[in-house]
Request: fold
Amino acid sequence: MCPKEMKLIKIKCISFFQSGVLKFCGPTKFASGIWAGIELDETAGKNDGSVSGVRYFTCQQKHGTVLIK
Reply:
């Protein structure tokens, strides 16, 4: 489970070999479980923080990714 008060932290996304900032942590409408939304430093993502029309966080296009926690 994600903490109620989340500090922005720099992380390394092993699946993308990219670094980024954790911007979202919680349940989503597209799948069950707890998901982490990450704003990547490089243009290596799949979205802008929204998935299937639902906004989970905001970032530049192709800088966002959402991973299962």
Observations:
- The longest strand covers residues 18-26.
- The mean pLDDT is 84.
- The domain at 10-68 is CATH 2.30.30.190 (SH3 type barrels.).
